[in-house]
Design brief:
The protein is 0% helix and 57% strand. The protein is an all-beta fold. Strand 5 (45-50) and strand 6 (57-59) form a beta hairpin.
């Protein structure tokens, strides 16, 4: 199983980036996918989440109206469109995929992480 993030880089304040998370080795359409980020010296925080079918999304207050999460299950890929970037958005961004199954009456959680991609917002 692999989750591979791409699209990070250096951008000026007010700029945009689109991150991608490409999955392999899993039935991607069954997974809820989230983007997290971790800035230096800070804990990892949840940025955005999208349901397995893509119909429901949720965002951290700090990125609402600026970031958009979407997915293309045919391509096994989730995207994070980031607009109006601020210096405080600087962090390593990670993709996370979770599926919870009920097998013989017991819940089993499958969870995978990508390696992260660096986003730096600076003038």
């Amino acid at each position: 199983v692999q989750l591979v993030e791409s699209g990070g880089g250096l951008v000026r304040p007010g700029g945009s980036l689109r991150l991608s998370c490409a999955a392999s080795g899993i039935t991607f359409s069954r997974y809820v996918v989230s983007w997290y980020r971790q800035a230096p010296g800070k804990e990892r925080e949840l940025v955005a989440t999208i349901a397995s079918a893509g119909g429901s999304t949720a965002y951290a207050d700090s990125v609402k109206a600026r970031f958009t999460i979407s997915r293309d299950n045919a391509k096994n890929t989730v995207y994070l469109q980031m607009n109006s970037l601020k210096p405080e958005d600087t962090a390593v961004y990670y993709c996370n995929a979770v599926q919870i199954m009920v097998i013989a009456g017991a819940q089993k959680r499958y969870e995978y992480w990508g390696q992260g991609t660096q986003v730096t917002v600076s003038s």
